[in-house]
């Protein structure tokens, strides 16, 4: 037999890992730094590492108490009701739940291009169609309501995804524009603001729109997405969540996987959420690193509010490959539809300096001419 027709589905292309690259090049893993997946260069919070070790003896039980405790801790952090917190197996898992809760077959989601591949992948798993709005490279990936509304179809688009800060460019959208977008789209269209990099940004969370804070009116058509993978350094345990309006928060019980986050993930999250110092240190490192890269890389570097920067290098595949050969693994953004760009994650001070030095040396040696053309004029690469 065969699975159903999966020809519309594509595999996720993750950033490359050190072990994988070292094996391929027959080199020692210790020679490499990986700045390709926006992970935390300081690792997990030490308290979370202890909690993970301590959780080892209790993994024979389903994580009922831990799940409830973490839900409560996250709800308290945002000052919302417990029901509004939809814990999941990574932010990716929360995307699945939102799609399960919202999409009827053939409804569409409207996603940014370039953008995060999993929005579309998950929508397709849930029998949805994927439509795109363009963030223009020539316009520095600027985000506002009009950029989305130009492509919005009120009859079809059930969810609109905003990524703020945006991966891979680092651009953000002001809350006033999110509000205007929510106002001008149908009451039946949910605006999901993906704040996977929210901790790194000088912007308030779109939670203000859900709860009616800071002068905004409360509304039931906005949700936010958050993750423990980036600022909290827990990418390996898979933990994220959505915060949704109270009006339909009870849908979670009907769509979630039983025990959506593991005992280990919940215990790690509980410890991490209390370790503010670790997050502050991480954010400070990222801010210093992105400023440093912007100043010292000999190519155009976009202003970023995330823990990464996008760099215009001309031939991304060639530059990423050569940087990798010299020990620095970065993300070739061809798979994002940006074959002229690489994305470099903010590392420790030492890692970031090495990345800049290596990038500049490679640019000089390859003598590539970064071209400032618009993304739409470049080769069509599958959106993965
Ligand atoms: C990393 C990331 C996520 C979530 O990742 P998880 O590891 O599944 O929590 C969501 N959106 C964007 C844009 C991301 O970069």
Automatic annotation (TrEMBL):
Keywords: Amino-acid biosynthesis, Aminotransferase, Histidine biosynthesis, Pyridoxal phosphate, Transferase. It catalyses: L-histidinol phosphate + 2-oxoglutarate = 3-(imidazol-4-yl)-2-oxopropyl phosphate + L-glutamate. InterPro entries: Aminotrans_II_pyridoxalP_BS, Aminotransferase_I/II_large, HisP_aminotrans, HistidinolP_aminotransfase, PyrdxlP-dep_Trfase, PyrdxlP-dep_Trfase_major, PyrdxlP-dep_Trfase_small. GO terms for biological process: L-histidine biosynthetic process. The modification N6-(pyridoxal phosphate)lysine is found at residue 230. HAMAP family: HisC_aminotrans_2. Belongs to the class-II pyridoxal-phosphate-dependent aminotransferase family. Histidinol-phosphate aminotransferase subfamily. This is Histidinol-phosphate aminotransferase. The gene is hisC.
